[in-house]
Amino acid sequence: MAMNVRLGVFFTRFKPHILIIFAQVGYTFMYFFTDASFKHGMNPHVHITYRQIVASVGMFPLAYFFERKTRPRMTGTLFLEIFVLSLLGMEIVDLKNPRGIAKVVGTSVSLGGVMIMTFYKGPIIRNPWHPFIHIQHKASNLHENWLKGSLLTVSSCISWALSYIMQAFTLKRYPAQISLSTWMNLVGAAQSGVFAVLTQHRPGVWSVGLNIDLWCIIYSGIVCSALIVYIQLWCTEEKGPVFVTMFDPLCTVLVAALAYFVFGQKLYMGSIVGGGIVIMGLYMLLWGKESDEFELQNKSQLESDSVHETFQQPDLQIGASPPTNHVLQHQP
């Protein structure tokens, strides 16, 4: 019984941490699924369109039945306000406080670790065993598009960071995570579909067989675009966008580890060093965020005690007045 209580308390306190780690694990497997699907010939633009359609179809019934009475009305004014507010900052940093310094240093350290993993290779770490799963790679195209891939990756990180900030502001005015996930996937599917139609002129790219392409679309749509996006929205509302984004480097470490141990891909010393630095920075940032929460809890407790004392003091005065009146009535 005591063990169940402890587990319940542990899960309640660390529920956002557990869920966001699960989200990073889900994204990790998605990268390998999409890698295999793209190597099989799946068009990336068509894949994104189908993936978001699957997510929309899966989330719409849940949004309708669970949030139809609670979700606010989505208006054009709300969209415009969210866009303007999304340009503003989110995290408060106090450089005079150790927790503020820890957040800045932890973020910088994690970013440095990811940069090392991305741009520094170092010596190759030999894999002593055969891979459990083998994916064919077209090595001739890897170096030709390295610069283009790096620029697209940086652009993706910037847009991803802005989307987290927009989600945080949206949730303040539209606190319905399932409905917001559905809206995001519907709009994303429409945008991706239009872009794919304009850029892909062969009808054959839209055909999907009963193979890795179909399973990749189903997994990416249901797990990543639907379930994980909902988890991220929930964690953003509970902990803020910085809490959600600071776990993103964990996915980079997991991808490198699985690529080496399971898929038999080359692992470089830079990936090991960068992964260790990412974990160290993540712990520093977590410490800074946890200190924030303790301070907010203490502040809320002090405010609650102050309000309680304010309401209690008039009661003491009222309770003391009848004896005084009683004495005055007996005076000659």
TrEMBL record:
What are the transmembrane regions?
A: 16-33, 48-66, 101-120, 146-166, 178-198, 210-231, 243-262, 267-286
Residue intervals of the EamA domain:
148-286
Record keywords:
Membrane, Transmembrane, Transmembrane helix
Kindly give the membrane topology term recorded for this protein: Multi-pass membrane protein
Where does the source fall among the domains of life?
Answer: Eukaryota
Q: What GO cellular component term, any one, is given?
A: membrane
InterPro entries cross-referenced by the UniProt entry: EamA_dom (IPR000620), EmrE-like (IPR037185), WAT1-related (IPR030184)
Q: Mind listing the GO molecular function terms for this protein?
A: transmembrane transporter activity
From the Swiss-Prot or TrEMBL record, state where the protein is found.
Membrane
Q: Does the keyword Transmembrane apply?
A: yes
The UniProt similarity line reads: Belongs to the drug/metabolite transporter (DMT) superfamily. Plant drug/metabolite exporter (P-DME) (TC 2.A.7.4) family.
Q: What is this protein called?
A: WAT1-related protein
Q: Which gene encodes it?
A: LOC111494761
